[in-house]
Amino acid sequence: MSGVSLAMAPRSDPDQTTSTKAPQKPGLAQQQQRSTMGGLMSSLRVVELQLVAFIMVFSASGLVPLLDLIFPAFASAYILALSRLAFPTRSRTATSAEIFQAGRFFRFYVMMGTVVGLFLPLAYVLGGFARGDDHAVRSATPHLFLLSFQILTENIISGLSLFSSPVRALVPVLYTVRRIFVIIDWMADVWFNKDLPPNSPLKDDVWFWFGRGLAVLNLAYFSINLFGFLIPRLLPRAFERYFQETDETYAKMAEDPKHTEPVKKSQPPLDKKAD
């Protein structure tokens, strides 16, 4: 949700200790790689199906404003236009490369964002349905709708080589910017448009302050994510990788004789002077 699927990469450093030993059987290595990729793809498909289900339910519920319903279509069209016109991909032979490798702290940061941004708001919406709190459901549903679309889009384009690294990095930036405004509306709703009745029971007080704290926590997390990670770290690394790939592509084209021979052959031979 925070550009994680675009940022994290599996460790691919060569193992120097195994280079001096007998080489591993290629069949076994390929089977292990296929089983790993198969499990990853199956899990991604399950996640994508769940996200599609969330999107359909949120869209049909009538709880998402028209502007937020239109935004994913605009963002998808803009991303496709950038991928074809501004930042076309330079390497189509391999799958999309991850922008940088993540450590343990970053993985913890991502896990915390998943809990804060997805699981707790989803529990808040389901709890609102159970308690009959339409105000809570209506306040948090637009955030969940946009976040579901963002995760679905990241999962789809991260597995395709049709999109360059700047285009893939712009996906979480676009959605996070929009969701910050949505979360601000959510926070204004629960802080200024909703009050506790006098002499309310303890469970109502806990539920009331849980909604307020969750809105503030989401605003804090995704603001830090946008201004502390996506803009200063993810975008520069994505453009750096893209321009490196562009330079390597042009260098290979300059060294390739297929691109230089036609230039030489196109020049007409000089006629010999008549004696």
UniProtKB/TrEMBL annotation:
UniProt protein name: DUF7733 domain-containing protein
InterPro entries to which the protein is assigned, alphabetical: DUF7733 (IPR056635)
Domain DUF7733 stretches: 45-243
Segments passing through the bilayer: 44-63, 69-87, 108-130, 208-231
Region ranges (Disordered): 1-34, 253-275
Sorted UniProt keywords: Membrane, Transmembrane, Transmembrane helix
Organism: Punica granatum
Entry keyword annotation includes Chloroplast: no
